């Protein structure tokens, strides 16, 4: 018996074998082309299509942030004052830096429970070297960051080569590195750092000239516009659908509103914080690494399917080790910013709810716990949500227990949205 395999399974439903559409059949059209043809109506239809298919992007967290700010502003007008928002822009950096590293790990579909302890150990190493041993601060910073990278790589080796689950090896790291931090700090338990030194300036230095904040806002908007135009031209050259100029300009205008509003608010208080500049620079650089480099595509590939990535020739073990090394390095960076805020390294560094806040920030910001979806901007958005809740609660004098419950509810809502979104995307054939 012979089987006819000449038919094209990819033909649309309703089309006969000769390729002529059946009467009344609707030929499939690339939705991006519809956007071009229909103008604003096309944009709106494309947006609704993506929402129905579960591709929500940053929409839930942005809406959540707007609601949170509106509620706290209604309860206390000081919440959106220039002073409070300026302090908030600095408070998010320490936890946010750690959350950026968590994003990389979550993209693999794994978890790192050691980042809190690694951040505390890094701050202790810096303090001992810079204060007790008299090493130059910049050298102590390099050693502290290197120690974070090494500890992260150790976790990656046990996970990638030995086969120990990431949950277990990083849980062991949580305990071991916390103990090592206590050992490094010694009997005193607290080492005060130079309040006018390099690390202290990370969170205390402000660019007081109003041109700095306006200039950064302009740089961000112009940078986005240039990148979007370059991407559109590259796509046109390759003959693939690209965003039309009107959409690029509209997106740029939408970005310009919060950028210049932030610059205005910061200039009403002390100016542009150095900590925020560094945080944004780290996010942009690592976002470029994830979305525009071969390494970033390998990370996403592993998050999608380890076996498929292996068959594609990707060195799975090396990518895994590098991701955990990045998480360790970012934990060390976050630890230094936290030490900068209190001008000390102590036995409480990396403890409390720091670990949970960092993981929650990455997830709330839109990074999937199931791997393969997310970006570094998730850390910024998620940390803003968590720290906004903490700031609002502090202004209203509400007990910390209520803050934990609310943060937990927000985290659960983010995971539920992620799960429903994945299920919807699978049902619509987009996952």
From TrEMBL:
- Tell me the compartments it is located in: Cell membrane
Q: Which Pfam families match?
A: BPD_transp_2
The answer on whether this UniProt entry bears the keyword Transmembrane helix reads yes
**Disordered: annotated segments:** 1-22
Its placement in the membrane is given as: Multi-pass membrane protein
Q: Write out the biased-composition intervals (Low complexity).
A: 12-22
Q: What InterPro entries does UniProt report for this protein, alphabetically?
A: ABC_transp_permease
TM annotation in the entry: 56-72, 92-108, 115-132, 138-159, 166-185, 205-227, 248-266, 272-290, 317-342, 354-372, 379-398, 404-421
Q: Which GO terms describe its molecular function?
A: transmembrane transporter activity
Spell out the Basic and acidic residues composition-biased ranges: 1-10
- Alphabetically list the UniProt keywords: Cell inner membrane, Cell membrane, Membrane, Sugar transport, Transmembrane, Transmembrane helix, Transport
Summarize the protein's role: Part of the binding-protein-dependent transport system for D-xylose. Probably responsible for the translocation of the substrate across the membrane.
Per its record, how is this protein called by name?
Xylose transport system permease protein XylH
Q: Which organism is it from?
A: Wenjunlia vitaminophila (Streptomyces vitaminophilus)
């Amino acid at each position: 018996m012979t089987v006819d395999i000449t038919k094209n399974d990819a033909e649309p439903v309703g089309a006969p074998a000769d390729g002529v559409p059946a009467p009344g059949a609707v030929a499939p059209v690339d939705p991006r082309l519809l956007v071009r043809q229909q103008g604003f109506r096309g944009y709106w239809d494309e947006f609704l299509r993506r929402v129905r298919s579960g591709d929500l992007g940053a929409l839930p967290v942005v809406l959540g942030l707007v609601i949170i700010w509106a509620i706290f502003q209604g309860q206390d007008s000081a919440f959106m004052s220039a002073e409070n928002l300026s302090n908030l822009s600095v408070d998010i950096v320490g936890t946010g830096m750690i959350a950026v590293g968590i994003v990389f790990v979550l993209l693999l579909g794994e978890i790192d429970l050691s980042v809190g302890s690694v951040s505390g150990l890094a701050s202790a190493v810096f303090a001992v070297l810079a204060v007790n041993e008299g090493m130059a601060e910049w050298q102590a910073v390099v050693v502290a960051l290197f120690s974070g990278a090494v500890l992260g790589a150790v976790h990656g080796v046990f996970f990638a080569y030995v086969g120990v689950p990431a949950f277990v090896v990083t849980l062991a790291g949580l305990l071991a590195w916390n103990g090592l931090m206590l050992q490094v700090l010694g009997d005193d338990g607290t080492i005060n750092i130079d309040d006018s030194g390099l690390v202290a300036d990370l969170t205390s230095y402000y660019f007081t000239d109003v041109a700095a904040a306006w200039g950064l806002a302009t740089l961000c908007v112009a940078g986005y516009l240039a990148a979007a135009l370059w991407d559109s031209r590259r796509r046109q050259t390759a003959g693939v659908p690209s965003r039309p100029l009107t959409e690029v300009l509209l997106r740029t205008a939408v970005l310009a509103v919060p950028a210049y509003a932030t610059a205005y608010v910061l200039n009403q208080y002390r100016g542009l914080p150095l900590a925020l500049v560094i945080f944004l620079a780290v996010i942009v650089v690592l976002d470029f690494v994830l979305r525009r480099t071969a390494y970033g595509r390998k990370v996403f590939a592993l998050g999608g399917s380890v076996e498929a990535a292996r068959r594609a020739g990707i060195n799975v073990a090396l990518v895994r080790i590098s991701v955990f090394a990045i998480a360790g390095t970012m934990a060390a960076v976050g630890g230094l910013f936290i030490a900068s805020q209190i001008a000390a390294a102590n036995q409480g560094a990396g403890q409390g709810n720091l670990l949970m806040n960092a993981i929650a920030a990455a997830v709330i910001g839109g990074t999937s716990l199931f791997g393969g979806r997310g970006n570094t901007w998730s850390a910024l958005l998620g940390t803003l949500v968590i720290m906004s809740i903490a700031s609002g609660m502090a202004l209203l004098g509400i007990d910390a227990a209520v803050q934990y419950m609310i943060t937990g509810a927000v985290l659960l809502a983010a995971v539920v949205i992620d799960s429903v979104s994945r299920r919807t995307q699978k049902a619509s054939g987009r996952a």
